[in-house]
Write a structure and sequence with these properties.
The chain is an alpha/beta fold and 391 residues long. Helix content is 37%, strand content 19%. The protein has a seven-stranded mixed sheet, sandwiched between helices. Strand 1 and strand 2 form a beta hairpin. It binds pyridoxal-5'-phosphate. Pyridoxal-5'-phosphate binds next to helix 4.
């Protein structure tokens, strides 16, 4: 584990290198095994080395990796059809990452504004949000840590508190140049923060009144993570734009920006593009992911596992002082402590469990959808033991 002096110091990795995985279990280079309750941050929803995904990738790799968006790409067309069927959106643009999917959404919103004659279009974004690390998406993020040192930031964003419909109505009264709102239906990096029931319906009404595009960042919440294909489907509403990445390729880098209705008509040839976006290999992986989630009925399973883990945590941590809140949606679960707890990550690793701590004091669990009941129970026991010993 000597590491390399030649890697840029953008990360501070834990002292472990994984060699291979199967399902929810990873093995390190010394043969020690770990239960993965993080899925590479909500990426490997089907677990590691899923046979259907591995097969799709290896078959595609031996046939054709890349041509270009100068030509038709069959896998891309198939994937767009599938994504629109499960989301009831109309059109898809494919990118290589979440940040790029959000860049597409931001550009789409600005172009929509210009087409309406708004010269300086503004997009509402919220406190505590995370939308990526490119200049526009770090500006959109509500976290000073990702912005500090990278000023000047990008213009054209207005910040509002998360989960506060009144403040958005207030902005509507006072700002004429708003064209869209970009918001996570549940904040991931920000600490598993949920919206009030009916918030999204109220936001839909406001956006309709104001002719704002309602743009949902489902990069972390999408692809079955919350027990529906997309988190908005827990509500009776529909976004105009939705971005995906993380779970879409189960580890193969792919992102997507989906649009519906008038938003789907904004981009015209030449407005936006990507060399790699939607290439035959990444789309083969994503097609296999969608097929597998359907065939294995993993949305219902994610809900069931989410309930099991939430119930277990609530039971075990009920009277523990220091545990401020336990909250979640499907398999996106946060346990908020009354103090920062970064050391829990290493302590869990020592016990063979991969977890994450975000927003300082929130233990974040994002286990794969293919977890067994026994593995779910193991996560509950280990996490509760660690927290009890810590607080
Ligand atoms: C991870 C994430 C992103 C950024 O995705 P990248 O692929 O790292 O660029 C954007 N939004 C949300 C909600 C995320 O969780």
């Amino acid at each position: 584990m000597a590491g390399s002096e030649h890697l840029m110091t953008t990360y501070a990795p834990l002292p472990v290198c994984f060699d291979h995985g199967a399902g929810a279990v990873l093995s390190d280079s010394n043969g020690k095994t770990y239960l993965d309750a993080l899925s590479g941050i909500a990426v490997c929803g089907l677990g590691h080395a899923h046979p259907a995904v591995s097969k799709a990738i290896s078959e595609q790799a031996s046939r054709l990796l890349h041509t270009s968006n100068l030509y038709c790409i069959q896998n891309q067309q198939t994937l767009a059809d599938k994504l629109c069927r499960i989301s009831a959106m109309d059109k898809v643009f494919f990118s290589n990452s979440g940040a790029e999917a959000n860049e597409a959404a931001i550009k789409l919103a600005r172009l929509y504004g210009h087409q309406k004659g708004i010269e300086n279009p503004a997009i509402i974004v919220t406190d505590g949000s995370f939308h990526g690390r490119t200049m526009a998406t770090l500006t959109a993020s509500g976290n000073r840590k990702v912005q500090a040192g990278f000023e000047p930031l990008v213009q054209g964003f207005i910040r509002a508190p998360y989960n506060d419909i009144e403040s958005l109505k207030n902005i509507a009264q006072n700002s004429a140049n708003v064209v869209a709102i970009l918001i996570e239906p549940a904040q991931g990096e920000g600490g598993i923060n949920l919206l009030d029931k009916n918030f999204l319906e109220q936001l839909r009404t406001l956006c309709d009144e104001q002719e704002w595009l309602l743009m949902l960042d489902e990069i972390q919440t999408g692809m079955g993570r919350t027990g529906e294909w997309f988190a908005f489907q827990h509500n009776n509403m529909h976004p105009d734009v939705m971005t995906l990445a993380k779970g879409l390729g189960n580890g193969v880098p792919i992102g997507a920006c989906l649009a519906k209705g008038k938003a789907a008509e904004v981009f015209q040839p030449g407005n936006h593009g990507s060399t790699f976006g939607g290439n035959p290999l990444t789309c083969a992986a994503a097609n296999a992911v969608i097929d597998t989630i359907e065939e294995q009925k993993l949305l219902a399973r994610a809900r069931e596992l989410g309930n099991r883990i939430m119930t277990g945590l609530e039971k075990n941590l009920a009277d523990i002082e220091g545990v401020k809140d336990i909250r979640g949606l499907g398999l996106m679960i946060g346990i908020e402590l009354d103090r920062d707890c970064p050391e829990l990550v290493q302590q869990a690793l020592d016990k063979g469990l991969l977890i994450n701590v975000t927003a300082g004091s929130v233990v974040r669990l994002l286990p794969p959808l293919i977890l067994t009941d026994e593995q779910a129970d193991q996560i509950i026991t280990t996490v509760c033991d660690l927290i009890k010993a810590f607080v």
